[in-house]
Amino acid sequence: MALPAWTFGVAIALLTAGLLGAFLPAIPGVGSMWIVILVYAIAERFATIDPLSFTVLTILGLIGATADLWMCQLGAKVGGASIHSTLFSVAGALLGGSIGFLFAGIGVVPGMLVGSILGVFFNEYRKCREWRASWKATLGLMIGFTLSSVVEFLVGILMLVVFVWQVLRG
Fold it and tell me: What is the pTM of this model?
């Protein structure tokens, strides 16, 4: 079923907004892009986005949506952080986000970031009592987070390209 041309424009705008989510934590990223593609594909009854392309887009979406998890873990591990420190990172992010929420909601994202960093740092310091090793583990987490944003952005670009290619191919 052919959809009106404006639906393609709306989908492109939403997908582009999803790309911003790779670098702006307050905006949903690749996961929201996948939902836009799913809704579009269902609305047009998988006529232009065939099941094979949708499967590829789903795999890309899973890689991009989970990049924060596995890239941060990998970065922290390379930096020497223990699994407990990565758990402290999550706890710190939740605590920091909760405290940030008290500041009219605008402090949630910075609070989560600071809380995550402090969670790793303080747990590593508690464990080894050495500032340098604690900082190295924390730096690994921060590098992993930065790289995860790059991976999520690249996956988002690839999803956008596949979507446009499939729709324009008709």
Answer: 0.75
